[in-house]
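stuck on this:

***
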Amino acid sequence: MCGVVGIVSHQPVNQLIYDALLLLQHRGQDAAGIATNSGSTFNMHKANGLVRDVFRTRNMRSLPGCIGIGQVRYPTAGSSSAEEAQPFYVNAPFGIVLAHNGNLTNSEQLKTEMFNIDRRHINTDSDSEVLLNVLAHEIQEATTGYSLDPDALFKAVGILHKRVRGSYAVVAQIAGHGLLAFRDPYGIRPLCIGFNDTDSGPEYMIASESVALDGLGFRFLRDVMPGEAIFIDIEGRLFNRQCAESVVLNPCAFEYVYFARPDSVIDGASVYATRLKMGEYLAEKIKQQFSAGDIDVVMPIPDSARPSAMELALKLNLDYREGFIKNRYIGRTFIMPGQGMRSKSVRQKLNAIGAEFKGKSVLLVDDSIVRGTTSREIVQMARDAGAKRVIFASAAPPVMYPNVYGIDMPTRKELIAYGRSTEEICREITADALIYQDIGDLKRAIADVNPLLKTVEASCFDGIYVTGDITQDYLNRIESARNSPKPSKDDTVRSQLNLNLASVD
């Protein structure tokens, strides 16, 4: 999962992009990057780390220009190497830099095509570099001479839609021409556009979430439609076209459950409102399973579960309490590598208020349960704080299947719900009782807020992959690749040296 932003303005955009990335920091804490365009020259700085650590004053001064893009990243495909921080750059045609949120499911096939047919070299393991080279090749094929017009760009994106599979929300800038943005034909990953009227004319921002627009004073215009491409030239003129032959809006359900900020609106549905609805539906299920007096107090696992927990407590007429205090300077445990690191981080991240737990039957509400490590630690913290009974509720259904569209859930064995019943999961996390949201209620919670969202991408819950290209063999391959340690650069060099020596002998 990543956050992307692109801005076309009449003033330098480096500070605007930096501020937008701060507002999107929750979408990726592994790396950050900004690329701006001044004349025909790109200026870029990117590195591993949080936005505030990657960019210093000297870096910001080296990013002049009134058009630019940025990204915050956590890796799903490729590695956490600084070499794979985005944006990526390719010099032909025209010069293009690109930032991508999502995950390509046919990147290996595309790599082969790039080498054997398109004669393009892919230098990293990142599928975003593959996507950039597909775009660059199709733009080159669609243009003649030195000219570039919106029709050629839209034709290139249309062919890209036919070649590329998976999820992608993209911002790209073309040196001396403008900003291009597009979204996959299923609209899996979010992307929206806003504008700001100035004395010099309108300026535009395209971002992963509406919160970036709100925070910088841009007025929300609309979501980028599935399959749509938008081009804003350096004069500030906006062009758009539907470039895919067939589109069906299937936004990722996990955006509403966990990833997106509650103050964002994605595809016409307020994230906050959908989480309230999740709590409302979950309350109805709890009423059927528990009697009055079984639960003394409702507590959220901060932060994303808070709206659901508040609404649940209201519907059940129970006290709502903040039993855990969060250290906001610890990163998200969900996106931390390794079970040991996640387990250690939970205790650093949360601290229990003993008086709120002592002698009580506590209902803990979390947004979801993925690997179960965090849930187990939290249940134990509640017991250590004096709770007499710990009931655990998930505002989302069981996460039973890998997510291949940009969320780091690729290995079934890592998912606590895979192959286990609710009772078995309850024992694993050591709770006294466990309640999951029903998949139908989750989908209803989103549709209640925006009735136009008749379908959502919920593969990690229901195993239905909307792109239609995910097979058992594909899942086995990505799990095998994940479980196989990658050779270090030193190992690669040694192997090459041994091969050269063997050929000499």
